[in-house]
Design a protein that fits this description.
Elements (H helix, E strand, L loop, with lengths): L11 H8 L6 E7 L11 H15 L4 E7 L8 H4 L24 H16 L5 E4 H6 L4 H9 L1 H12 L25 E4 L4 E3 L26
Parallel strand pairs: 1-2, 2-3
Antiparallel strand pairs: 4-5
Helix pairs in contact: 1-2
Bound molecules: zinc ion (ZN).
Zinc ion binds next to loops.
């Protein structure tokens, strides 16, 4: 026997839409880190956000659907590390790693393959944002400055929400090492609005030692 949704039994996306204020602009956003081939289950997020986007529009809400490619994230995929030539790429930003296909980088190659499936299942974000463009153009400078100036608040949120204790010198930023081009090896400790001082000691999982210094274990001074 099928049932028709009543006011008390709305379709979940309609229930969310009905709970939102109608007099403000809404943004629904999803993102993907292109760290390798994306399995079919990777569409779960876009399918859910698209269902919400459609419901919001049907309810007359002012809504924008944004999809972000996190192509600035460092490579830390354990399965990719096993592949030929990938071990030396660990810790580098995904958009700076060579592609399996000439003319593209690793992040663009995998992100474009993933995004091409959207059309076939009828998912249409209004805007696709690439982090390389947002960071590179300086569009996020104001927000980066804000979190750096309030690093103590970010550390407190980590402790309260995730039960993760960051030491007092930890800053909520990753910098790219000038020597080896890696992100995960570099520990940012001080900043003066334009530059972040970095002395390496932290290592992200799967990252090899910095090959650009004689000790091999520490990254040099770098800046954003
Ligand atoms: Zn380095």
């Amino acid at each position: 026997m099928t049932t028709t949704p009543t006011d008390r039994e709305l379709f979940w996306a309609d229930a969310v839409a009905a709970s939102l204020p109608r007099d403000v602009h809404h943004v629904i956003r999803d993102s993907k880190t292109p760290s390798g081939p994306v399995p079919i289950s990777g569409l779960r997020g876009p399918v859910i956000t698209d269902a919400l986007y459609r419901a919001f529009r049907e309810h007359g809400l002012d809504i924008r659907y944004v999809f972000t490619i996190d192509d600035f994230d460092p490579m830390d995929s354990a399965s990719m590390k096993q592949q030929a030539g990938m071990a030396e790429q660990m810790g580098k930003p995904l958009f700076m790693i060579p592609s399996p296909e000439p003319g593209k980088d690793f992040a663009r190659y995998h992100a474009e393959r993933f995004l091409s499936t959207f059309e076939r299942v009828g998912i249409h974000p209004q805007e696709i944002h690439w982090l390389r463009d947002l960071y590179g153009s300086g569009k996020l400078d104001k927000e980066i400055d804000l979190v750096l100036r309030n690093a103590d608040v970010v550390r407190r949120v980590y402790a309260e929400v995730s039960n993760v204790q960051k030491d007092a010198s930890w800053l909520p930023v990753w910098v790219i090492c000038e020597n080896c081009g890696r992100i995960g090896t570099t520990h940012a400790s001080d900043f003066d609005a334009a530059a972040v001082t970095a002395g390496g000691s932290r290592r992200s999982k799967g990252t090899r030692s910095c090959p650009g210094t004689s000790s091999g274990a520490r990254c040099g001074t770098s800046s954003t």
